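User: I'm new to structure prediction. If I give you an amino acid sequence, what do you actually give back? Let's try with this one:
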Amino acid sequence: MKTLLTTGLALALAMGPVPAAAQVPETPATVIAAIAEGCTPSSAFGFDIGQPYQGGRMQQLDAGMEPFGSAEVLATQRSKTLFGVDLWGYHADDTGTAEERRAGARRLLDQLDAAADESGLFASRTWDEENETIIYAEPVSDPASAVRLELSQMGVSVIAGCADESLRQLAWDEAFGRTRVDRPVRPALAPAIRVDPAQCDDPVMAEALYDSFEAGGGTDVMNAVRGSQEYFEHLTQWYGQVLMDRGVWTEQAREAFLMSFLEDEVIMQGLEEQMARLTPLLESTMQIAEMRDAGDSVGSCREAVSLINMVEEIGRANEVQWDRATALYKAEATRLGVTLD
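Assistant: Good question. You get back a string of structure tokens that encode the predicted 3D arrangement of the chain. For your 341 residues, that looks like this:
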């Protein structure tokens, strides 16, 4: 449940002490109730469990759900069946020092735990020592359901997760090719919204842009990159399934073909270039944190925009590698005298 998928969330955890502009605000009772009572056998905080989902993985929540600003929607990679949602809650860095914000997160976790316990929606409450997570299971309305509510704290953040564990297993099976798949449809996601770095030169605008970034800004870019990645993974898995079905491949031949990617110049060059991008990406994250500590609104805003642009570059480079992989599959099919369409 603690998968960190947005750079905005990474920054929230990396922030050091900042002069407090106000006390860390209390979370409204309506938000506490919406989360504590929002996990049922059929719904994960308003998202329908077990139903098809074609939207972006990262979603920004309405302002009325503050301090929960981002939702990570979990769906199986191939059948796109929604099996859970993780909500991320944290207060902006201008609401207190890092220590105050961590204390606020602990208070919020305790409030959610108390509300979930009082709701009586689950028959079981346990503490997972290894993952430092509170787990509510065995929904009273459907004891056979595998839906669980999980509550945990990570630094200044609180994570509330609701998922059907039986469908999570399906997600693993699909990801590792243990199920049959249908031919995928390329996701139609909205174009990413671009921010001109020059907008950061106005300190007031810079603060507004940074607040948006910290609350999960850039999720459109992340969704596009991830959506493309999952589409190509699904497509190549389907190609392999077709070749197996037509009797021109054995499992051994399939594995040997995949291993041959490690010898392909285009794919390996792309992999090396991607690895080289990881250090600048991490350095950019740390630079933003340092700039925030120093009170540099303009600099931190510009660096945040640069960071999102780097993520977009990684997405474009991924497409080159996947285009090469799909071309190799098509060439293999031609060599074997079959088609993939």
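You can read the tokens as a compact description of the fold. Here is one thing that stands out. The first strand starts at residue 43 and ends at 44.
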